[in-house]
Every structure is written in C-alpha cells, then in structure tokens.
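README, section 4: Worked example with a bound small molecule

Sections 1 through 3 covered apo chains. Here we extend the same pipeline to holo records, where the ligand is supplied as SMILES alongside the sequence. The molecule in this example is zinc ion. Nothing else about the input changes; the structure line simply encodes the ligand pose together with the chain.
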Amino acid sequence: MVPVKRAAVLLLTRKAETVTPGDGFLHSETMNIPIPAVVRLNRYVAIPRQVGTSPSRRGVFVRDDWRCVYCGSAAETIDHVVPRSKGGTHTWDNVVAACAPCNHRKSDRTLAELGWRLPRAPRQPSGWQLRGFRGQRRPDPAWEAWLPRRHHELARRR
Ligand SMILES: [Zn+2]
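The generated complex, written as structure tokens:
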C-alpha cells in the first residue's frame, strides 16, 4: 500500500502503471492525473516501510483500541507515560491513549508517583497494523485480488 501521491510519482516516472483505476483526479499546476486504485511496479523500487515512524495520534488510538489505558473508558487524548517535562519522548513506547480525566489527573507526574500501572507495555505496532492506520479499516475492494489473505482476515476481524 502506498499513499496516492507516491503512487502518482511512480506513475509519472514510469516506474509503475495503473492496473485498476480509482476515483477522481490528482491535480497539479500543469496536469490532472487519474487516481489509481492499483498500480503495478514495472521494476522493483523500494517502498519505504512505515515502520519506525514516530507515532501519529490516530495510530496510538488504533493501537490502544480507542480506550484509555488507565481506566478503559473512551480515550480522547494522548498521554506521555513519562511526561515530556521529565524527558519523556514522543515514541511508541511512551505514548498511550487516555481519557481526558485520567490525563488531567496524571498531569506531569509519573506512574510511580501516582501508583498507577499500565495494563501492558506500550509498543510499536507491527507493520501490518501500522499500514492499516493510514487508510480505511477495510482495504479498498479493488485491492482484494492483490492483498495477501491475512490482510482480509485482519480487516474482517476489526
Ligand atoms: Zn481514563
């Protein structure tokens, strides 16, 4: 799965061709490019994996199932487990989904100071999970024929 803009660049540089057209157009100053749903690479080009990226807000919510890791109610904020004011980083192992009341109560204190515990250590999600964050929960039906079986099953289970 590649972002639409990246796919357009691959098409323009003739590194890929459209297999299945998608909906709509990408507009640039000089041209309109039909948005492809499926492209085929004409030769192998490295598609950078989304792994190792810093966590996006949405990514953290999806990983933590939109639940506050501290109390289990609906999460609407992102909490830094080790507060940024205490040197906590914005990395997968230090960000969790949290509800506003817990985030407020926690403020810039550490879990040890509060006597709170995490139900599980926050981790960077797998590549599969990460890629799922970027688009719809279910893959575009036009991709079905091209995706490994496992992806459909994952998508259906969500
Ligand atoms: Zn909470």
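What to look for in the output: The chain has a mean pLDDT of 80. Residues 63 and 125 are 7 Å apart (CA to CA).

Section 5 describes how to batch many such records.
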